[in-house]
Amino acid sequence: MIALGDFNGDGILDLAAINFNGNTVSVLLGVGSGRFGTQATFPVGINPISIVVGDFCGDGRLDLAVVNYSDDTMSVLLGTGTGSFGAQIIYSTGFQPCWIVTGDLNGDGRLDLVVVNSYSSNVGVFLGNDSGNFGPQTTYPTIASAALVVINDFNGDAHLDLVVISSSWPTISVLLGTGSGTFRSQTTFVSTSRVYSAAAGDFNGDGRVDLVVSNGPPSLFNVGVLLGNGDGSFGLQTTFYAGSGSTLQWIVINDFNGDGLTDVAVANYVSRPLIRSVSVLLGTANGSFVLKTTIATGNDSIVYGFAVADFNNDGRLDLAVPDSKTKNRVNIFLNTCT
User: Fold this and answer.
1) How far is residue 224's CA from residue 214's CA, in Å, rounded to a whole number?
2) Nearby residues of 95 by Cβ (< 8 Å), 6 or more positions away
3) So what's the pLDDT on residue 132?
4) Do residues 83 and 106 touch, judged by C-beta distance below 8 A?
5) Per the database entry, which stretches of residues form a coiled coil (predicted)?
6) φ, ψ of residue 49 in degrees (nearest 5)
7) Of the four, 186, 223, 265, 314, which is 20 to 30 A from 171 by CA?
8) Separation CA 232–CA 185 (nearest Å)
9) How far apart are CA 134 and CA 76, in angstroms?
10) In the chain, where the domains are located
11) How far apart, in Å, do the first and last CA atoms of the chain sit?
């Protein structure tokens, strides 16, 4: 998994990638034209699995936060502003933390962190302060085998809420925020299939936040859109074909063709036979999506998370796709939309 930001203040995007088996984070400083310099590595906990970027201490420098799956910790690395990072600050999480997001949950202008604790079946909230430190986690029960959390204002009250998914069960959990850094008890609803990844946005232009998900069994080969009702609940899922493959997993959204509508990119995590790729679906004004193109990532690759940015400054959004199998590399796919 990777995260992006300008870590040395030169106006060029840099890249941070977690090394699950190496117990480190690699930082590659951008040199322009979609290229990056040699990696520098920084120690974190055992089996880092998810990463976010933010200015946690309010000094104008970007910092990193990582959750470590096998030692039940979170590592915070404060940035120096030169592209390097200080020694990790370690926080205890629940069992098997697997996902992390950031946002200002209590409206104090400081970034907070939300961690999915998979084996504990809860989310942990860490409230931040000006020094880049975080208080101990406060936990909120979620669905079993929680795998991922999406943060947004799903009921239109200007407070950040959480949507939690499980890759093991066809259930989605919604925790509405109070604006004080706490959350109400979860509300759950059943999906038509297991959900592997999700993203939030207003896909039909009605001012309400919707969900787009990559579906697992039994609804293979498609992404689903659940239109928001504006109160933290969602309508029934509508599915759209996303190309052949056995498991569509990682999903990101943005406007890839510059028409002002939100599009979707979804990665095929495992394929049988070996057809591994990223599919791009273009959005329409009514919240539906149409498969535009499929980008081959190599039959020996396993795509593990990816990110969107304009890496070569041509005004078009590109994809950074890490390969977590044998090559330990990040592939940059430049946008050629006209």
Assistant:
1) 6
2) 72, 117, 118, 119, 120
3) 83
4) no
5) none
6) -130, -20
7) 265
8) 13
9) 9
10) 209-338
11) 29
Closest CA to 261 of 212, 192, 334: 212
C-alpha distances in Å from residue 172, one per residue of 1, 29, 151, 189, 252: 23, 37, 13, 6, 18
Residue with tokens 């809420």: 161
Count CB atoms within 10 A of the CB of residue 319. Answer: 23
Q: Could you tell me the pTM of the whole model? A: 0.93
Amino acid letter, 254: N
- DSSP class of residue 137 equals P
Q: Which two tokens stand for residue 122?
A: 């809860």
3-state secondary structure of 75: strand
* Six-digit token string for 25: 């984070």
Residue 81 · residue 27 · CB < 8 Å = no
Q: Which of 87-96, 145-154, 164-173 has the lowest mean pLDDT?
A: 164-173
Distance in angstroms (rounded) separating the CA atoms of residues 129 and 265: 35
Q: Which pLDDT tens digit goes with each residue over 100-135?
A: 999 999 999 999 999 999 999 999 999 998 788 999
pLDDT in tens, 5-56: 999 999 999 999 999 889 999 999 999 888 899 999 999 999 999 999 999 9
DSSP per residue, 198-257: EEEE-SSSSSS-EEEEEE-TTSTTEEEEE-B-SSS-B---EEEE--S-SEEEEEEEE-SS
15 phi/psi in degrees, rounded to 5: -135, 135
